[in-house]
């Protein structure tokens, strides 16, 4: 089977991560630029030939929406430049919380984004810790949905934490918490929350033994940090010895940084799918890179190797 030449490019939003992925893969990023017009319109451009190449475009779609639009335009440009195959590497898949109609007269944003990526001409999508696994079914192309547990679990084991329990911040995270519980051989705690409105939690309780435990809360993303900080404070009030969190995507909007620093959280472990704000106080944060994992999957996909062993982590 013929192996086409590979080239890795990045959108502006994920250049910090794409550089590490390319280095781990053993290459450098392809040359591209974005021309910007005075009204804010922009035009991505490849500054080298990609004809007949397998092109990997790395771009997380965190706010602003320009990041998504830039990814779509880069895919379109690659198709029009006669790339053999175009793979979108989207470490953080934005709009993933909108995976269904949870109330009348609202869009299904995740499906719309999937439609746009396919309309742009993507042949394959790589991402990590989707908010809802069924989003893979929104695509009519292969989706490689990786799991951050392959990165988090070795680090957590290295801490040698005694009396460790895994906690889900809400009922929706029970499946993820159960996975970590099995991998680490620990008990599980489920937090139950009642939302007053979007991004605002009304009250919270815990199901499971908390007294005397060192608790690790696991989740796919942290946005305003209201839920996780309330959970940490509640767990400490219930007798936990310490509370940490392992969160894949650090969205961290609004007062999130301040809430975390003022909370009972001892450590917040995140990945670099989204960059942290360097102007904030980051003393509680530990960042683990996803670069090696994505580079490994890119190499396997490019060379038609199996990747199921990575999914099982």
Q: What can you see in these coordinates?
A:
It is a single chain. With 313 residues, this protein is α/β, with parallel strands linked by helices. The protein has 2 domains: 161 residues, Rossmann fold (3-Layer(aba) Sandwich), CATH 3.40.50.2020; 134 residues, Rossmann fold (3-Layer(aba) Sandwich), CATH 3.40.50. Helices cover 30% and strands 27% of the residues. The strands form 3 sheets. The chain has a 7-stranded mixed beta sheet with strand order 10-9-8-11-12-13-14, sandwiched between helices. Strands 1-4-5-6-7 form a 5-stranded parallel beta sheet, sandwiched between helices. Strand 9 and strand 10 form a beta hairpin. Helix 1 packs across helix 8. The two termini are 29 Å apart. The model has no long low-confidence stretch (mean pLDDT 94).
**Strand/helix succession:** EHEEEHEHEEHEHEEEHEHEEHH
How many alpha or pi helices?
9
Helix content range of the residues, please? 25-40%
Strand order of the largest sheet: 10-9-8-11-12-13-14
Query: How would you describe the oligomerization state of the chains in this entry?
Result: single chain
Mean of the pLDDT scores? 94
> Mind telling me the C-alpha Rg?
20 Å
Distance between the termini: 29 Å
At CATH level 3, the topology of the largest domain is Rossmann fold
Function: Involved in the biosynthesis of the central metabolite phospho-alpha-D-ribosyl-1-pyrophosphate (PRPP) via the transfer of pyrophosphoryl group from ATP to 1-hydroxyl of ribose-5-phosphate (Rib-5-P).
Family: Belongs to the ribose-phosphate pyrophosphokinase family. Class I subfamily.
EC number: 2.7.6.1
Protein name: Ribose-phosphate pyrophosphokinase
């Amino acid at each position: 089977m013929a192996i086409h030449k590979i080239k890795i490019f990045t959108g502006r939003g994920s250049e910090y991560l794409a550089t590490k992925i390319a280095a781990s893969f053993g290459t450098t990023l392809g040359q591209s630029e974005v021309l910007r017009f005075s009204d804010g319109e922009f035009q991505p451009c490849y500054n080298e030939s990609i004809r007949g190449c397998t092109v990997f475009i790395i771009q997380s779609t965190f706010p602003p929406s320009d990041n998504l639009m830039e990814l779509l335009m880069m895919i379109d440009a690659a198709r029009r430049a006669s790339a053999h195959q175009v793979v979108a590497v989207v470490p953080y898949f934005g709009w993933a919380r909108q995976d269904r109609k949870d109330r009348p007269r609202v869009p299904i944003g995740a499906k719309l984004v999937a439609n746009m990526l396919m309309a742009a001409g993507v042949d394959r999508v790589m991402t990590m810790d989707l908010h809802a696994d069924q989003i893979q079914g929104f695509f009519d192309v292969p989706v490689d949905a990786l799991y951050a547990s392959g990165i988090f679990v070795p680090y957590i084991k290295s801490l040698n934490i005694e009396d460790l329990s895994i906690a889900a911040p809400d009922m929706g995270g029970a499946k993820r918490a159960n996975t970590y519980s099995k991998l680490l051989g620990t008990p599980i705690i489920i937090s139950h929350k009642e939302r007053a409105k979007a991004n605002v939690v009304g009250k919270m309780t815990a199901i499971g033994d908390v007294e005397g435990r060192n608790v690790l809360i696991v989740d796919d993303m942290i946005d305003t940090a209201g839920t996780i900080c309330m959970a940490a404070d509640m767990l400490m009030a219930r007798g936990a010895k310490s509370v940490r969190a392992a969160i894949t995507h650090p969205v961290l909007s609004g007062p999130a940084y301040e809430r975390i620093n003022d909370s009972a959280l001892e450590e917040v472990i995140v990945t670099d799918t989204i960059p942290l704000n360097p102007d904030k106080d980051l003393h509680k944060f530990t960042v683990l890179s996803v670069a090696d994992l994505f580079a490994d999957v890119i190499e396997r996909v490019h060379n038609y190797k199996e990747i199921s062993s990575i999914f099982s982590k």
